[in-house]
Amino acid sequence: MQTTGGNDVTLEFLKSVPLFKDAPARALELAASVLTRREFPPQTTVFQEGDAGEALYIIVSGLVKLSKVDLGGHEKTLALLQSPEFFGEMALIGNASRSATALTLAPTEALLLYADDFKRLMESFPTVSLNLTATLAERLRGMDDEAQILSYKDAQGRVAYVLLRLHETGVAEPDEHGVPQVLLTHQELASLAGTSRETVTRALKALEGEGVIRTRTREILLTDPEGLAEILHEIR
Ligand code: CMP
Questions:
Q1: What are the Cα distances from residue 221, in Å, to 50, 146, 156, 157, 193?
Q2: What is the pTM of this model?
Q3: Rounded distance from Cα 143 to ligand 1 centre (Å)
Q4: Residue in 114, 139, 144, 192 to alter for ligand 1 test, most ligand atoms within 8 A of Cβ
Q5: For residue range 124-158, what is the model confidence (pLDDT) as tens digits?
Q6: Measured between alpha carbons, how far is 52 from 217 in angstroms, rounded to an integer?
Q7: What is the band of 7 on the pLDDT scale with cuts at 50, 70, 90?
Q8: What is the pLDDT of residues 173-209, one digit of tens each?
Q9: CA dihedral over 86, 92, 94, 95, signed as positive or negative
Q10: Measured between alpha carbons, how far is 119 from 109 in angstroms, rounded to an integer?
Q11: Mind listing the domains of the chain with CATH numbers?
């Protein structure tokens, strides 16, 4: 990244961040002057559910899992986020504690926006506030869809849904032949689908039997996303 006024954040990158979509140049310049860059090795807990919130995080590269654990110890993954998405804004709104735990799944670089600077940007630039509201609405819509799907689909449908979401959000990146691949463990998929690891393993076998995916160790190839969607919507 290029250096901008003593701060190595490019304005071009900030323009791609949903929080700063169509924001005036002054907002981007102010953000660039206050953001702090941090690097996290894989499997680092960035913060834990219940912690006090000090900053929000804009992902420059890498992959971050946001999850919650219930009293029985079951983990539910709420989202897997990558660049240029951001997280950690909820605790800064109304000074609440962290609503979920953030863990890096890959080497991750992030830009931290501290609470006071975040509030100043929101107060000074309505576009930034509207962008934040739009992101929260989009997440709520996603959770509504997921609640509906996960409440009545069988294991195969739930796993098909999770694989398709990973495809749509770009977490399933193309392999050398252009086939989207999911590089997650069965346990991680179980946490996304709200089911057990054993159930995920069985569902993946069934989906492979249908010819819509191919599995290898720690790797699932989405060979037929349309077929997966047909299974999800029970039209096949
Ligand atoms: P915060 O509560 O500060 O810390 C946990 C963060 O997880 C939260 O802010 C959001 O940024 C993020 N988060 C919580 N729920 C979701 C969700 N359903 N989708 C995407 N991100 C989420």
A1: 36, 22, 16, 17, 18
A2: 0.92
A3: 11
A4: 139
A5: 999 999 999 999 999 999 999 999 988 889 999 99
A6: 38
A7: low
A8: 999 999 999 999 999 999 999 999 999 999 999 999 9
A9: positive
A10: 23
A11: 2-141 (2.60.120.10), 153-232 (1.10.10.10)
Query: Nearest CA to 171 among 184, 156, 185?
Result: 184
CA of 136 to the centre of ligand 1 (A): 9
Distance from residue 231's CA to the centre of ligand 1 (Å): 29
**pLDDT exceeds 50 at position 1:** no
Mutation test of ligand 1: which of 54, 78, 136 has the most ligand atoms closer than 8 Å to its C-beta? 78
Q: Which helix (H) or strand (E) holds 214?
A: strand 214-216
* Measured CA angle at 168 (ends 165, 172), to 5 deg: 80
Burial of 14 (0-12, 13-18, 19+ CB in 10 A): buried
Residue type, 105: L
| Total residues found in the chain within this entry | 236
Give nearest CA residue, ligand 1 atom 12: 87
- Residues lining ligand 1, judged by CB closer than 6 Å? 53, 66, 78-79, 87-91, 98-100, 139, 143
Contacts of 97 (CB under 8 A, 6+ apart): 49, 50, 51, 52, 53, 91
If you take atom 20 of ligand 1, which residue's CA is the nearest one?
Answer: 79
Distance 4 CA to ligand 1 centre (A): 29
Output the CA 86–ligand 1 centroid distance in Å: 9
